[in-house]
Design brief:
Helices cover about 40% and strands about 15% of the residues. By secondary structure, it is an alpha/beta fold. The strands form 4 sheets. A 7-stranded mixed beta sheet has the order 1-11-10-7-6-2-3, with helices on both faces. The chain has a two-stranded antiparallel sheet with strand order 4-5. Strands 8-9 form a two-stranded antiparallel sheet. The chain folds into 2 domains: about 15-235, Aspartate Aminotransferase, domain 2, CATH 3.40.640; about 240-355, Aspartate Aminotransferase, domain 1. The protein has helices at about 15-30, 35-50, 60-70, 85-95, 115-120, 140-145, 195-205, 225-255, 285-290, 290-300, 315, 325-330, 345-355; strands spanning about 50-55, 75-80, 100, 105, 110, 125-130, 150, 160, 165, 170-175, 190-195, 275-280, 330-335.
Length: about 350
């Protein structure tokens, strides 16, 4: 066992700026949804390049709002990948739609456009496109399918696909600001769109107080000014956060290039902002040492690594026929990367991984 402090897999980057922002809200006496929320909405929308945003209580709430705002419900189908957070499936089911699960492109972990096209039917109303780990999906190919795209930018704020900001392309976009996301509000999310009707519908469904009529799909999904103040501070530092992530990723690229690991790919026309640094064990190595065993050994030496997706949807649902998602589940390893990592922690992470794979 290591005597050094453990390097966590992920960690929020917080400082005096965030403390001052929170103190200002407390001193104002206005803690619930108010002017800070509106400012945060404007800031995120401007960063991504959309007409506006609707801040809500979580990323999952943002997905539900996007689906309902698009008029999706019972009898409709929504395509989404297996290798993704379960929140997308849960939100789709909660609005009454049927999820159509498809496989991923193993090299990028993104939804596979070929498999997506095969899954389309006359009932398909949307494709949810998660941009996993900091790399945009192939938006250009997916757009040609002629189905509304809901971009999931929970992990990819600031990434570029063919000159366009991830999140600015789809009919709707959702973000998550969970504690360990690219920028955090503790909990929280946002619906973004260029369509004013979608934004208006999202705001109408976010809260039920002082409204002219009742609608069953309305919940209390509000974000507070406390959370938004934290987000505003984080947004002001996001560019520097991304620069630090890029520097850490560059170190890992160099340090791990001879280990036999399959390092993150960045296809032409896309940029990677490294929300996660995800490598894959080659099959020959995985057969000798399981991924779970390696994770346990690394943690025993003070480096906390994780499966980048806890469990693919096809495993939850006992579905067959998802070879790329299954391969990712068995071989993908996420190693620590976040802006507050010290240089010594970065080098110790790389060295420990190299030694375990030697």
């Amino acid at each position: 066992m290591t005597s050094s402090p453990i390097i966590p897999h992920s960690k929020p980057t917080l400082g005096s700026e965030e403390a001052r922002a929170l103190a200002a809200v407390v001193e104002s006496g206005h803690l619930s949804q108010g002017p800070r929320v509106e400012e945060f909405e404007r800031g995120v929308a401007a960063f991504v390049g959309t007409r506006g945003g609707v801040a809500v209580s979580s990323g999952t709430a943002a997905v539900e709002l996007a689906l309902v705002a698009l008029g999706i419900g019972a009898g409709d189908e929504v395509v989404l990948p297996s290798y993704v957070c379960a929140a997308l499936w849960l939100a789709t089911v909660r609005v009454g739609a049927r999820p159509r699960i498809v496989d991923i492109d193993l090299d990028t972990f993104a939804i596979d456009p070929v498999e997506t096209e095969k899954a389309l039917s006359p009932r398909t109303r949307a494709i949810i496109v998660p941009h996993l780990f900091g790399l945009p999906a192939d938006l250009s190919t997916l757009q040609r399918l002629g189905v509304p795209l809901i971009e999931d930018c929970a992990q990819t704020l600031g990434a570029i696909e063919r000159g366009r900001q991830a999140g600015s392309v789809g009919t709707a976009t959702i973000c998550s600001f969970y504690a360990t996301k690219l920028l955090c509000t503790g909990e929280g999310g946002m619906l973004l769109s260029n369509d004013p009707a979608i934004l208006d519908k999202g705001r109408a469904l976010r809260e039920y107080d002082q409204v002219p009529a009742l609608e069953a799909a309305t919940y209390n999904r509000k974000m507070t000014d406390v959370q938004a103040a934290l987000g505003i501070s984080q947004l002001g530092r996001l560019r520097s956060f991304l620069e630090r992530r890029a520097a850490i990723a560059a170190y890992y690229h160099d340090a791990l290039r001879h280990t036999g690991l399959l390092l993150p790919a960045t296809p032409e026309g896309r940029t990677h902002i490294y929300y996660r640094y995800v490598v894959r064990l080659p099959r020959s190595r995985e057969e000798g040492t399981s991924l779970d065993t390696l994770i346990t050994r690394l943690e025993g030496r003070g480096v906390q690594c994780r499966h980048p997706v806890f469990r693919p949807l096809h495993r939850y649902l006992s579905l067959d026929g998802y070879p790329a998602s299954e391969e990712a589940a068995q071989t993908a390893l996420s190693i620590p990367i976040y802006p507050s990592m010290a240089d010594e922690e970065v080098s110790r992470t790389a060295q420990t991984l190299c030694e375990e794979l030697a």
